Fold:
Amino acid sequence: MKRGIAAAVMAVVAGGALLCLGGCSTLGYYWQSVSGHMKMMNDARPVGDWLADASTPARLKERLDLSQRIRSFAVSELKLPDNDSYRRYADLKRRAVVWNVVAAPEYSLTLRTWCFPVAGCVGYRGYFDEAAARAEADALKAQGFEASVYGVPAYSTLGWFADPLLNTFINYPEGELARLIFHELAHQVFYAKGDTMFNESFATAVERLGGARWLQAQGSEAARSEYAQFNSRRVEFRALALDTRRALTAIYSSAPPGERAALKARAMQDFRDRYAQLKAGWGGFAGYDAWVAGANNASFGAQAAYDELVPGFEALFEREGRDWQRFYDAAKRLADMPKDQRHQALKETPRA
Structure:
């Protein structure tokens, strides 16, 4: 699922560039990551320059102006980092900034990981070139993995660089643009090394809570209506995907080995059938079609990283009195715990 377009929020932490700060497994991967990132940074110009340029299209100026109001709101209302991130803009002239590769075994939703000294172990590998990402996916399939490639509209360098606004997401609906900016800034609050699920679930919780607050306080009636329709579909699809993940997990953990293939195929067909029923009530909306067509263990596993612990973080926000700074401090304390303990603590956080 593509971050901000589908449901899993796939604006990920450093699909390539950040990881290479800690060292990459091959010189070729290191080079494509660093060169791709630096080209993006060099292409970025201050938003003020774009707004002052008479040749900048009026529509782009309007979106850039909106982005700066969202950016200021992130600081004043959500207590997110106040720095130069999302104060510059670049047109990459392509539909994604990086393409992430994820992989999982035939009978597991547990993602294969790649480990780096700074970032720790993460469940994806990012490429600035789509063909290279697909070649990596093919290599993983040859090793017996199920693999998926998805385009990422944005990624965070955790504050190492001033992350720019990009053409890959600047035209998102207002509510989705706000969510994406909040998500990526949330990654600058803290980073739990080697725990993709914790990091992404935290950022997803911040984007949901912050996005709702933006629309309530600053959004127009049209923006709220547009978001409500989009989000209702997303919620329905997430629920369906969660049911499928649970069904597949049960099959992989308890079904006799000789029956797994048939049961897995049945669960996947049930997923596609139920999706067709959902889509029939969406008035022609087809935004999830590509994801469903390519759904496999890898794509379901990647989705889980962005969803699994979100309810716990949302409950933690309520427990901390909906105070953003207290919420961040509490989340940081969890990040200092061992991985299993922090996950368990979130799952046990009382719901309001």
